[in-house]
Amino acid sequence: MIILKLFMDQLRLGKKFIHQDGYITLLSVLVVGAVGLAITISLVLLGLGTSNSSLTLQKSAQARSLANTCAENALQQVRNDVAFSGSGNLSLGQGSCTFIVTDTGGQSRLIVSSGQVGSVVRKLKLTINQINPKINILSWQELADF
Q1: Backbone φ and ψ of 83, nearest 5°
Q2: The pTM of the whole model exceeds 0.85
Q3: Cα separations (Å) of 104 from 5, 52, 60, 129, 130?
Q4: I need a labelling partner for 69 at 20 to 30 A (CA). Which of 21, 31, 45, 50 fits?
């Protein structure tokens, strides 16, 4: 009888430890799962941010190329007609560009062009002081704003 009582006491103590181990294991799994979920969410958000930045950078490069294209087109217009003064536009690929040629006296011209892809806009300003016998560009610079 005493042996049976000791056996039952040991069995009860063993069950108590098994139940506590189960709680510890369950809590450990929950903590590790929460940390893993937080890391996964952080990585996904970081990836989305990087992807968005990369897309904007690509659009910016395309808009700059379009602005250069319109500036070159404006130079060709001035080359073809020395008295040219006016504006024009082009649509290429996923964007468009515009240019304005302003006569600033004599052979001097001011060309402002802009390229746009989506919501990204890049702008250029060219200053010309001579057209004949060849076009002389004093400056070719990017503008922050018109």
Answers
A1: -90, 5
A2: no
A3: 111, 42, 30, 9, 11
A4: 50
pLDDT digits 0-9 by tens, 87-129: 999 998 889 999 999 999 889 999 999 999 999 999 999 999 9
100 and 111 Cβ atoms separated by less than 8 Å: yes
Long-range CB contacts for residues 129-134, cutoff 8 Å, separation at least 24: 131/78, 131/79, 131/82, 131/107, 132/82, 132/107
Sheet holding 136-143, edge to edge: 86-92, 95-105, 108-117, 120-130, 136-143
Q: Is residue 122 within 8 Å of 111, Cβ to Cβ?
A: no
Instruction: With beta carbons less than 8 A apart as the criterion, state whether 135 and 128 touch.
Output: yes
What is the model's pLDDT at position 56? 85
Which candidate, 141, 135, 138, 144, places its Cα nearest to that of 74? Answer: 135
Residues 6+ apart with CB under 8 A from 127: 108, 109, 110, 111, 137, 138, 139
Quote the strand ranges of 44-94, DSSP E: 86-92
